[in-house]
Amino acid sequence: MAQPNNIYGGQAVIEGVMFAGRSVHVTAVRQKNNEIRYFEVPKKEIGWVQALKKVPFLRGLVAIIEASAKGAQHLNFSAEVFAEEEGETKEEKPSIFGNITMILGVAVIGVISFLFGKFVFTLTPTIIEQFLFQHLFSNQILHNLLEGVIKILLLIGYIYFISLTPMIRRLFQYHGAEHKVISAYEAGVPLDVPHVQKFSTLHYRCGSSFIVFTVIVGVVIYSFMPYDSLLERLLQRVILLPVVIGVSYELLRFTNSLRDIPVLRYLGYPGLWLQKLTTKQPDDTQVEVSIASFNRMRELDGELSRDRMVV
After folding, report:
1. Cα–Cα distances in Å, from 11 out to 147, 177, 198, 254?
2. Does residue 218 lie within any of the structural domains?
3. 4 within some domain
4. Is 290 part of a structural domain of the chain?
């Protein structure tokens, strides 16, 4: 079967999956009664935003801001469904730890990691590296490399810590289910549970891969920028963050286009390694929800596209 022309992306939410189509975003959430509840939001295209998304190195920043806004909306929907059902099934109030886990775990990994979290994981390693190693040597390239290592260690440690909680583990299972459905669609196989389950939970276009690329690209770009103080170093990180994001996005697209070339496919492996932490093997019911979300998105995508052609 021929390779599909459309490229789709998605996001795991609480007890469900969101898929983004050309004309609509759809989230499917599994309720406690096993029924699947949908949240459907048609895309509103803004001319100047669409124009910016066609500009290399700028389109990455635009795409991430847009994805953050849309993702937050769908995360909020899934959180509301979860809270409603928890209120119906439990008389006691959710624990403070449970609320913190939801806010820090779901929000940061799902959406806010691209905004607030990106600043935290950009500036905190710089401060730690400067505090630990500033007097040991003067080679700024080596300082940048150590900063990158610290950044990766903090990221891995954070993901590992939150993955120990049941809610985040299930979120990562839905993340795996999302990847499986996209891979199955791109392979042209039937979208049913037995076929979809045969695919890997890892995918080259994942946001986890993007995070790794921002670390690697940041080390390279920062190495061309000398500094005289910690404040100057931190300001450089903030100012250059859009550049790092733009270059990383293009690199992610590039490695995805090379994934079928035997040698060059290894360029995307660092991102796939991180996905071993951010995705877990889903069960059949979770894959079923992911398939339902994808199919509903495709159905509405077709309907909305036809309506716009008629208009």
Report:
1. 29, 10, 20, 21
2. yes
3. no
4. yes
Give the per-residue pLDDT at 95. Answer: 45
Asked if residues 126 and 144 have their Cβ atoms less than 8 Å apart, the reply is no
**Per-residue pLDDT band at 100 (split at 50, 70, 90):** very low
Indicate the pTM of the whole model: 0.83
Mean predicted confidence (pLDDT) in 122-140: 90
Domain total of the chain: 1
Q: For residue 170, is it within any domain?
A: yes
* pLDDT of 92 over the 70 cut: no
> In which domain, by residue range, is 270 found?
9-310
- What residue type is assigned to position 105 of the chain? G
Q: How many CB atoms sit inside 10 A of residue 256's CB?
A: 19
For residue 283, CA distances in Å to 80, 99, 264, 288 come to 23, 25, 32, 9
Looking at this protein, which amino acid is placed at residue 143? H
Could you give phi then psi for residue 175, rounded to 5 degrees?
Answer: -60, -45
